[in-house]
Every structure is written in C-alpha cells, then in structure tokens.
C-alpha cells in the first residue's frame, strides 16, 4: 500500500467535511470539555498526582490520538481505572520521584503500544477474555470507591488493596471532619440522584430523550460549581479546615523527555506492560462498540498506534498514562460529535482552561471530587455480568470471580495479571481435552448427533467420533486416548469414522498422531475413514503421505460414510440415552 493511499485512507473522514459537520464537532467538543475539566482534576487526585497533571494529559495527547487513532468518536484522556493503576505503581516510590515516575510510566506505555501497533499486534486483543475484563473493571471500580471514602470523611488513608485501605481508614476514622462529611455525603447523594433519575424526570416533562440524557450528563458540572461557590463564600477551607484543591498552576505543559535511568525503567517495566494491556483492551472495546453503532470500521492496529502516541506525548509533557473513556465517548456521541476533530477542539478548550480558568477551581472541595469519582465508578460495577457468566459457564465464572477478588486482595496490577493467566490457562485446558463425541444418526434424518445426549441410531461395526476442535500438538495425544478407549469398548468395530466438521487445522504433531492411529487400527483389522473434512485441511493432508497409507476413505459427508460402510440396510440398535433437550 502506497504512503499516499494509506494517508488518504487514514483521513477519509475529511472527505465531505462540511460546515455542518464542523458545527456538530465544535458543539460536542465544548460539551465534552465541560465534562472533562472536573474529571481530569478528580482522576489526577485519584492517581496521587497534582491536579494540573490531569489538565496536561487532556491537551497534546488528544491531538496525537486524533491524528493517528482509528476511532472517529473515542474520547481519550484520564480515566478512573488507569489513574488507579498509576497510583498503585507510584505509591511505594519516594514522593520526590513520583512525578517523574508517572511521566516515565506514560512514556514507556506509549512506546510499548506503538511497537505493538507497528508489529500489527491488534490481534492480541482476542486473547483477553471479556469476562476477565468485565470482572477486572468491576473490582477496580470497587477499589476506587473504597479509596475515595477517605476524602468524604476528610481523613487520610493509604493502601493498594481493599483490606489495606479499610484498615488504614478505620484507624483514622476518629479524626473525621464533620464539614467534609456534610459536603461529601450531600454531593454523593445529589450526584447519584442526578445520574440515576434526572434524565427520566426530564423525559416525563416532555424533553426529548437524547437531550434529557445530555443534560443529565452535564448537570454535575453545575453542581460542582455550586459547591465551589459555597466553599468560597463561606470560607470553608479557612474557617472549617475543609480540604480543597487549592491553587492550580496555570499555563501549558512543558515538553521534556522523562529521565531515562535504567533502574527506573526496569522498576516500571511490568507496570507499564500491564497498563498498556488494560488501556488497549478498555479503549478498543469502547471504540468497537460505538464503531458498530455508526457502521464504521475500526482498525485495532491503528488504535495501538493512536493510543501509544497519546501516551508517549503524555509522558513528554510530564503527565501520566491515559486511555479511552466510555462515559465521555457516550457524551460525545450524544452531543453529535462525528469526527476526530472533536478531540482536537477539546484539546484547544482544555488549553484555554489551563491558561485562563484554573483560578476558578481553587476552592473546589476534595470531598466533591471524591463524590464525582464514586458516582462515576458506580456505573462501572457490573456484578450481574459476573453472575451471568457464572450461570452460563462455571469455568468462566470462576475465572471472573478470581479476577474480581484478586483485584481487591492484591491490587489492580496483580489482579489483571492473575485474570489473564487464568483465562489463558482455561483456554489451554479446554484445547488440551477437546470435546470428542461418539455420534449416531438422528432417526429418520441424515443428521448425526452426540449419542450421550440424544436418542440416535448406532451400529456396533461402524463407529464415529466427532472432533469438535482443531487438532494440534497439545490435544493430539488426547485423540489417541479416545480412540483407544473406543476400541476397548467396541469389540465388534470394523470401521472408525473421524467426523471433522469443526477441524480447521491439523498441525504436524496431530498428523503424526493420525499416522499412529491408522497404524494401530490396521493391526486390529479396523479401517480408518474421515468425513465432513474442510477443503483446506484436506489439501494439507494431500501434501503428506497419510492418505497413501490410509486404510479407509475420505467421505464428503457423514451420511455418505454411513451409507457406504453399514454392513446391512437395517439400523436396529439404539443408544439407551435420554434426550435432555
């Protein structure tokens, strides 16, 4: 593909970019910016970093993503889960090194993502289990909520696990500040009611559903400024010792390469890798959902490049890791945002905020920011999905539950690692012992079903095993075991048919196993046959000598095989199993 063609394809959204589209993008960017200002301050607080860093990562990184990312509507920037992961990474470091370490973490995360994108590693997302991601986000959201309760009570508490946070919080509870509790709890209640019921109430009054939803998303901003006004007017910081954001330094972030000491990079390497995985999976899941709604194509390799570039720039501007935000993307879509220009316009508005509007945020109570985080994280709690996964599959449910508990018990980094490892182990276990069923003909039809689940016609001299998985080195031995088991239980067998409907690949190790099975059956005067074999698998077998040595034949369908091999026209023996369907 030529550079010119690639460039044209990348910026195809510019074709037909009219003033009406520009107007839609501009309005959407204003609305997203209004939502982003308090969020970026809150998430910087969650990451254990100065509030201005939340603004810094909402400027140039957004432009980088708009230029390189694939999604037209994904809103990138600081998010709750990645902020919590950043906090866990730098919490144990000396305080004077945390800012540099956070920037280095973003820098390394960006490089990893960009390398993965250049190597076309977008397919790696297929290896991350959705139940694991859902359980991880639920666990992280609950951990975030627990971590923010300290601000609601106006006390300090530290820890990276649920037990550590609760223990620290309990020991400091006698020092709780009544004013912080009044402000924090009231803010939680108001923001929760607005988030849960305001859109419904507006629709009842005749407001259109889309507009009502948008208003409900933006109302918390008005609530926050009300609290800023109350805090400033009554001097809650000076008179009642209420913790506030304080003076937020204005100005644009400086560009600088983070300190690249080998020791620091080695210490953050694993953390950066875990953050890169979570950021990519979370962002791409959001981008794919909205791309499907708008019938646009998403290139996961370009997503890696775009997300990597935004994190790289975040590190170069003294920030910390970022990713795509589900809530802000939803607001962007609801507000009519149509192209990546929304991210660019949002970056410009955030730059204006950094230059001129930061003094307005000085009196913002930390308890209100904590309430904003808590209410936002409530929407991330998805216990129903964990339960649905458990009901559908005990194995997947146990993996999801283990991931959720691991996040709470060991922290966000270990939680995601344990979840991914368990999901991979489950997948390997399932492919090591694939489902191989003895099948028979469903009476009166040409269809063949599992004899252990249906009442089917079988023949003691002609047996069929249906293989429900591709054959490769890890499960080939299991096929040999199943054939040996069938031989020992079927003394009258003269023909064995391997039904290969679901077999899309046979590797060299599995081919050797088929040779061994054929050889063993020959010694017992049993012919080996294949049926329902896919064309590409058959073509591969023609390149081997298996078909030259094969004692039987390859049949187009299972019914053809049974019609050709049955010793007599009458099927009289039936399996004794009960139909459970």
Automatic annotation (TrEMBL):
Cellular component GO terms, alphabetical: membrane
Domain STAS: 452-565
Membrane topology category: Multi-pass membrane protein
Pfam families in the record: STAS, Sulfate_transp
Entry-linked InterPro entries: SLC26A/SulP_dom, SLC26A/SulP_fam, STAS_dom, STAS_dom_sf
Record's subcellular location: Membrane
Alphabetical GO biological process terms: transmembrane transport
Keywords: Membrane, Transmembrane, Transmembrane helix
TM helices/strands, residue ranges: 26-46, 53-70, 100-121, 127-146, 179-198, 218-237, 257-281, 340-357, 364-381, 401-426
Alphabetical list of SUPFAM superfamilies matching this protein: SpoIIaa-like (SSF52091)
Alphabetical list of CDD domains matching this protein: STAS_SulP_like_sulfate_transporter
Protein name stated in the entry: SulP family sulfate permease
Annotated source species: Litorimonas taeanensis
């Amino acid at each position: 593909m030529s550079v010119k063609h690639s460039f044209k394809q990348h910026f195809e959204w510019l074709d037909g970019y009219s003033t009406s589209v520009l107007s839609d993008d501009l309005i959407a960017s204003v609305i997203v910016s209004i939502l982003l200002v308090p969020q970026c301050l809150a998430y910087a607080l969650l990451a254990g970093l100065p509030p201005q860093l939340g603004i810094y990562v909402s400027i140039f990184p957004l432009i980088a993503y708009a230029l390189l990312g694939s999604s037209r509507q994904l809103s990138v920037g600081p998010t709750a889960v990645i902020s919590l992961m950043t906090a866990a990474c730098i919490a144990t470091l000396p305080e004077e090194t945390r800012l540099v370490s956070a920037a280095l973490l973003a820098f390394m995360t960006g490089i990893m993502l960009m390398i993965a994108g250049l190597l076309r590693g977008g397919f790696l997302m297929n290896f991350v289990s959705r139940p694991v991601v859902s359980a991880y986000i639920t666990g992280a959201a609950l951990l975030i909520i627990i971590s923010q309760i300290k601000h609601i009570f106006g006390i300090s508490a530290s820890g990276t696990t649920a037990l550590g946070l609760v223990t620290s919080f309990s020991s400091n509870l006698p020092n709780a500040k009544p004013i912080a509790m009044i402000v924090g709890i009231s803010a939680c209640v108001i923001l929760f009611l607005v988030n849960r019921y305001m859109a419904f109430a507006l629709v009842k009054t005749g407001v259109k559903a889309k507009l009502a939803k948008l208003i409900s998303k933006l109302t918390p901003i008005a609530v926050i400024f009300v609290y800023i006004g109350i805090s400033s007017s009554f001097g809650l910081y000076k008179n009642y010792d209420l913790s506030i954001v304080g003076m937020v330094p204005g100005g644009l972030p400086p560009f600088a390469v983070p300190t690249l000491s080998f020791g620091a990079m080695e210490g953050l390497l694993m953390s950066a890798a875990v953050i890169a995985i979570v950021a990519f999976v979370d962002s791409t899941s959001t981008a794919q959902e909205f791309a499907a709604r708008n019938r646009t194509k998403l290139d996961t390799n370009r997503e890696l490049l775009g997300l990597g570039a935004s994190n790289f720039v975040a590190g170069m501007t003294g920030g910390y890791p970022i990713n795509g935000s589900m809530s802000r993307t939803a607001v962007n879509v609801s507000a009519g945002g149509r192209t990546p220009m929304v991210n660019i316009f949002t970056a410009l508005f955030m730059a204006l905020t950094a230059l001129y509007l930061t003094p307005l945020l000085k009196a913002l109570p930390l308890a209100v920011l904590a309430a904003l985080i808590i209410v936002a994280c409530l929407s991330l709690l998805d216990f129903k999905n964990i339960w649905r996964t458990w009901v559908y599959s005990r194995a997947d449910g146990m993996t999801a539950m283990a991931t959720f508990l691991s996040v709470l018990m060991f922290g966000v980094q270990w939680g995601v690692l344990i979840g991914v490892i368990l999901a991979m182990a489950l997948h390997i276990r399932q492919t090591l012992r694939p489902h191989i069923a003895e099948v028979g003909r469903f009476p009166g039809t040409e269809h063949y079903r599992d004899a252990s689940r249906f009442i089917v016609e079988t023949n003691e001299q002609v047996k069929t095993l249906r293989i429900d998985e591709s054959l490769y080195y890890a499960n080939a031995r299991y096929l040999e075991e199943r054939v040996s088991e069938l031989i020992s239980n079927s003394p009258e067998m003269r023909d064995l048919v391997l039904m290969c409907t679901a077999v899309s690949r046979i590797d060299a190790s599995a081919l050797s196993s088929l040779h061994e099975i054929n050889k063993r059956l020959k010694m017992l005067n049993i012919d080996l046959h294949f049926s329902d074999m896919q064309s590409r698998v058959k073509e591969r077998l023609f390149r081997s000598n298996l078909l030259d040595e094969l004692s039987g034949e390859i049949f187009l369908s299972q019914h053809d095989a049974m019609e050709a091999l049955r010793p007599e026209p009458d099927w009289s023996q039936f399996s004794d199993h009960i139909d459970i369907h």
